[in-house]
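hey m, so remember when u said the tokens were messed up on ur end? i reran from scratch. heres the input so u can diff it against urs
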Amino acid sequence: MSTYIMSDIHGSSKRFYEMLKLIQIDWSKDYLYINGDIVDRGKDSLKLFYEILEMKKKHGDHIVIIKGNHELFIDYYLSGYLPENLYSSFGGKDTIRELTALDYARKKELIEIIRNLPVYKEIISPVRGDMIIVHSGLHEDHIVKNVDDSINVIESIESALRRDEYEYLISGYLQYDAPAWITKGLDKVMCVGHVPTMYLPDIQAPVICMKSGGKVIMTDCGAGHPGGRLGCIRLEDEKLFYVE
């Protein structure tokens, strides 16, 4: 059994299917976590989203889709909370074209599918123990501490979600600005996407990597951006895979 995590596919269908071949996934025993942002930026990202949903119907819990901010953007756009011009500026121009082709029933169904996606999943990493797979990370205004002064990851996420799911999912605080005492003080390892590592000043390369302290794994390799690629990590030995 192997457990794989990738994130921020952003409609890169060719890369996604090439990655499945590269890792030689065996759906009878392996598990794949897609950590948000399947959609937007790519030409046919909604088509890929539906294809992955079909894969999930076929393979059940062996594929898990975590909600990213771009999935939430679809919900907000269809629900009338996100204006078309703003959604387009977020990379949703081609997704809007795909959404327009859906009838009312399919739009309503899509909203429900997105709303039922989990925001995070708690798993056990064979190498690092308790791990939370979540797209965005932490919100700076919702840091909850345990009695031993460590950061309670789940309670911090839940606090931010109770306040504002949108603000939580667009937050890049953990990747960009969180001080070392936070990244080192987490009570669980966090595997996040959301911010391409090539845009982080201390990395500047499309690679899966860890922040100092060894408790934050960042998996967004910029597949939806110029110069980016799709990355994937296998948790059992932390082997990294890339598709250009």
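this time it looks ok to me. The domain at 3-243 is CATH 3.60.21.10 (Purple Acid Phosphatase; chain A, domain 2). if urs says something different then somethings off w ur setup not the seq
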